[in-house]
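User: My instructor asked us to take a sequence, write out its structure as tokens, and then describe one feature of it. I'm not sure where to start. Here is the sequence I was given:
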Amino acid sequence: MAKPGGKTESKRTAEPADGDKALKKSGKAKDAGKSGSKGGAKAVRKAARGKAKSAKPPKVGKPRRLRGAEQLVEKVAAQIVAAELDRVQEEHRLGVENGLVSVPTDVGDKGSEKADKKKESVADKPLGELLRVPVGPVSLADYDPSSTPGVASRADAEAELPALNARLDELQERLFAAARGGDSKRRVLLVLQGMDTSGKGGTVRHVISQLDPNGVRLTAFKAPTEEELAHDFLWRVRAALPNPGQVGIFDRSHYEDVLVGKVRKLALPMVIGRRYILINKFEQGLANEGCVVVKCFLNIGSDEQRDRLLARLDDPDKHWKYNPGDVDDRLLWPQYQDAYRIALEKTSTETAPWHVIPSNHKWYRNYAITRLLVEALKRIDPKYPAGDFDVAAERERVLAS
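Assistant: Let's start with the prediction itself. The structure tokens for your sequence are:
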């Protein structure tokens, strides 16, 4: 856009002279001057004005490109407002379902019906969706270790556990049978990570008590041995994977190499960064082979950890569980929390998502893990294999024996 006094204005002042020159060349301007005819002079001035008018730039206004930019800004702003409204509505919905937002009850029969439907939807909704870490940035401050998503009270959870345990037992048997009596390659891997006293051992005892030991493979990872250190960090993990038909349980796991490794500076930052990538590829490979990976971060509060450590010191029968090194790690609480945050951000994928398990309440921790395992096995939906024999003939043989 040209400014007044610029090049466009300069052209405007010169163009009338060019018009007179063109008229003189044709002889019309000369004739008009000699005769002194007003009509001729008038024609000359009119022609010159017409020439100047045709060269006059358009009125200063918003260029087409600027108007398009404003329209784009308005469109994006409208989309942002709509997205923010959807986010607020979704947060409110989740708050209502999780009991964090109260809903008026004095809205008549229709309100009561809606409230009942809400309660039913919470009970039917997979717990994994409530505890799942979404792909993207993570803030552990958003996860309350004393919360109990998906269940209203301890009494409700304990009332539901017998049915959950029976369902877990049935699904595990079907998983084992489908692999042993058929050709199924399906399996489940439960990964347990958490700060000291978060309840990894207690979770293992609870889960194993509900499963057939023949179909379970448990591995508790400690500091790597010299032989393990001679290989890549996933070498010992591959060797401990469950076989088809089994439920594998990792008490600590390959994530120690990006948690302790980062906090204690046992590896360079670039090495830690590469391990996140290798872990994602490793877990994607497991999924491709038919293994469902259930990753659980047992989220405990700092005060709760202190109380549990003190309880171990106060009870002589629990001294065997106390490790002075736990206090050394406790002094690095902020660093470990940051290491967990980064690990969850970089390795919670659509294929193998993390689940943050509020673990200040042991009863809820055990309930949540049991329910997650049931949901994982239900997704597999293992089937009992069909027999490869004549049932009627075999019945006669049994009766005749």
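For the description part of your assignment, you could build on this observation: Residues 305 and 387 are 52 Å apart (CA to CA). Try explaining in your own words what that tells you about the chain.
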